[in-house]
């Protein structure tokens, strides 16, 4: 295993741990954005700032205003002095198409994820934008 792959696996493990911050019941997703070997942002799925920390409604359906981990990580950079141009996104679950659009526009150049999702349209969009996509299935503990 080369050095890059070791780092990729390590950051993915961190993203997985970061997902534990999510108070969502149905699915917990974590994301890290790394640039020049620095973690410049992080995110997990959840409601916007100032909203109740509950993701699901009474019928256990995810509320429409829940932000995905990738969207939280990217928008966090928008409020910082940093920028995501040329960065790598590590995310536990494969990005959906809505997040794929944000990833492209944020100038992210690599996406590494650990869990394949039924819908592949997000990954396909990233590939169309020539973003390097790497799937590293992590062994379940
Ligand atoms: Zn998404």
Automatic annotation (TrEMBL):
Cited CDD domains: deoxycytidylate_deaminase
RNA-binding is among the record's keywords: no
Stored SUPFAM superfamilies: Cytidine deaminase-like (SSF53927)
Active site positions, chain numbering: 70 (proton donor)
CC terms in the record's Gene Ontology section: cytoplasm
Pfam family, one: dCMP_cyt_deam_1
GO BP terms: pyrimidine nucleotide metabolic process
Sequence ranges assigned to domain CMP/dCMP-type deaminase in this UniProt record: 6-126
GO molecular function: dCMP deaminase activity; zinc ion binding
Required cofactor(s): Zn(2+)
InterPro entries cross-referenced by the UniProt entry: APOBEC/CMP_deaminase_Zn-bd, CMP_dCMP_dom, Cytidine_deaminase-like, dCMP_deaminase, dCMP_deaminase-rel, Deoxycytidylate_deaminase_dom
Binding residues annotated for Zn(2+), in chain numbering: 68, 96, 99
Keyword ATP-binding attributed: no
Keywords (A to Z) from UniProt: Hydrolase, Metal-binding, Zinc
Similarity annotation: Belongs to the cytidine and deoxycytidylate deaminase family.
Protein name listed in UniProt: CMP deaminase
């Amino acid at each position: 295993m080369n050095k890059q792959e070791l780092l990729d696996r390590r950051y993915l493990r961190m993203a997985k741990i970061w997902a534990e911050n999510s108070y969502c019941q149905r699915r917990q997703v974590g994301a890290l954005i790394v640039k020049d070997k620095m973690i410049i942002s992080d995110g997990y799925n959840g409601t916007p700032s100032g909203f109740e920390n509950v993701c699901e409604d009474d019928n256990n359906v995810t509320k429409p205003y829940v932000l995905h981990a990738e969207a939280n990580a990217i928008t966090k950079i928008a409020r910082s002095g940093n920028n995501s141009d040329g960065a790598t996104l590590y995310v536990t679950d494969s990005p959906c198409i809505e997040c794929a659009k944000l990833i492209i526009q944020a100038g992210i150049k690599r996406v590494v994820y650990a869990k394949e999702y039924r819908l592949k349209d997000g990954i396909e969009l990233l590939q169309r934008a020539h973003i390097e996509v790497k799937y590293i299935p992590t062994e379940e503990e």
